[in-house]
Design a protein that fits this description.
homotetramer; alpha/beta; globular
Chain lengths: 195, 195, 195, 195
Amino acid sequence: MDINFFEKKAKRGPQVILPKDVGLIATYSGLSSGKNVLDAGTGSGWLAIFLANLAYPGKVHTYEKRKEFYELAKKNIESSKLKNIKIHNDNIRKAKIKSRYDIITLDLQQPYDLIKKLDKNLKEGGVFAIYSPNIEQIKECVEVFKELGYETKTFENIVREWQVGFSSRPVHSGILHTGFLCFGYKKGAEKTKKK
Amino acid sequence: MDINFFEKKAKRGPQVILPKDVGLIATYSGLSSGKNVLDAGTGSGWLAIFLANLAYPGKVHTYEKRKEFYELAKKNIESSKLKNIKIHNDNIRKAKIKSRYDIITLDLQQPYDLIKKLDKNLKEGGVFAIYSPNIEQIKECVEVFKELGYETKTFENIVREWQVGFSSRPVHSGILHTGFLCFGYKKGAEKTKKK
Amino acid sequence: MDINFFEKKAKRGPQVILPKDVGLIATYSGLSSGKNVLDAGTGSGWLAIFLANLAYPGKVHTYEKRKEFYELAKKNIESSKLKNIKIHNDNIRKAKIKSRYDIITLDLQQPYDLIKKLDKNLKEGGVFAIYSPNIEQIKECVEVFKELGYETKTFENIVREWQVGFSSRPVHSGILHTGFLCFGYKKGAEKTKKK
Amino acid sequence: MDINFFEKKAKRGPQVILPKDVGLIATYSGLSSGKNVLDAGTGSGWLAIFLANLAYPGKVHTYEKRKEFYELAKKNIESSKLKNIKIHNDNIRKAKIKSRYDIITLDLQQPYDLIKKLDKNLKEGGVFAIYSPNIEQIKECVEVFKELGYETKTFENIVREWQVGFSSRPVHSGILHTGFLCFGYKKGAEKTKKK
């Protein structure tokens, strides 16, 4: 995938997740080549594409219920030329999901409701990564995680771009907050086959 | 690789790069499965291991001149069970490097000196990722990048862990600064074979 | 007051409020020479001393229920040589307060309970400044303020010290979070006599 | 002074200094009622007004060489109704300044040139507060301060406003950086007469 893919080729629709957050998701979820990921909602597909790019030959299954976002994400996935993403135009809350995954990423409203439903789809030693703009949803997730016996970690990150040269300083204005990232770690031995 | 690898198995020696910085390096360097990476200095080997984990089946070549760090990193690489890292106990400033890479990561003193030397080892469309604690080294890198016709982007990130529950707030104290990240983008079409 | 008062003379007891937070309280509460302030709980007395220092010849009345903190704060106030602070060894929740103030600062548990009680003690156009480590207490305060018809503003600040010289950068580690600051602005004309 | 003075009455001209920075200047310069301040350049006059408001009955002398900024600041100072500010339409680099001050604040280009000139105008135990958007000017100031035997402290602060309620979180975008604050502390006993 071209490093300029997101800037030049991907179409933007619903608010997209930023590299700074994708980077933390990748490192704190233990993402690595060969892992399988379940992702919802797809939105513009950026997170699914980023993850698939790094998980290859692992697979990413991503769910988007809204027809117009599904169509947009589908085009972005096609442009990415990645073959290891499968997008479903389906409501993940109603979908019958049978496979088990190494990582489940949730970027949608009321993620806490879904954690219980998808617990059976997360392998022992697997990780939920929840992305939410507000702290209230994170609190509800942490409660559910504790109930299920998961360990949790919550982060936020502030990334500033710098202008460097004659007058070096952080750029004056920009994004102060995108979302909180909450990771739920399921107990049990890591079952993913090592490379 | 086990998601707890770094906490449980890796041995710490020289100061290690943090997940927050590795995450930004991964996303802003266009790292993806199949890419080849040149890395120096190895230090404890954490960055090399993180990158190899995501770049597989791409390869990571990493250089460390100090014998004791080389020995430590070698053990960490062995524990990671990753087969796509090759570590060299050699001074990258003197080494004869012939291959061309998609990404070159530098986490050592005076990185600017090395950019000119390694320019020939970076493919068209490739990316340098420089990690430096102070702004002076970043300024020197940006100057060299401009001279060579690269585009650059410089970032720093502040990641705060939150305690979430009855009393939700960022943790009181911790790391305020690790390093600046400076990316140099080489002009030219991306030549990496697409998956 | 000596600029080194806090570093050299004041005794530290309970956790003290930092200059970065005092600075925001001063600017967002409209503190100025001649204003009268009600403050609780006193703690080590630092906030009261800072405020009195700037409000002079205005007065600061500060309440502390715990005997040992009261004794400590009393000593700090004496060392400051400021004559415009009156400290009360009393529980502000039970105290009969009749005066009306320009500014009321609360740095104690369950501040929201006190806002309703002290509303009658805040002049038209006056300001409550609430300092709380967690977001839950701030939420409760904002609800009470809305009920009472106040406008509110909530802030947090991250201050980093820099080392500047040969290698310039923010210091590696330190304080990531102290508290949130919530200001409640009471409607009505400012009645403080202008200088 | 009305707490809404800056929002409702003051006219904005050149870029104004923000409350977050004024707050740090107030606390780290040891500003208190009765201290005398020298300030340059005036700009819109906001910093001078803030300082005068807190230093009263101390005086603030402020210098602005550009006629149009001087006229604007003069109007702002008149609206503030503060009687303890004197504004000079003069270039501070050329002005003959004889008085000695407790605090000197500089918010202009090449502040380092002025530190040496104004050293004689700062009392023993006094403080320079330098506000500069870029790190290069701060480095030059720190060098001059060291040469003169001053101690220094440099800070930057990131203030985020929060929306608090049903969905609590920092506001999405805004100001990431205004300036660095560098304080130079002159040796010697504090000579300001205590209140």
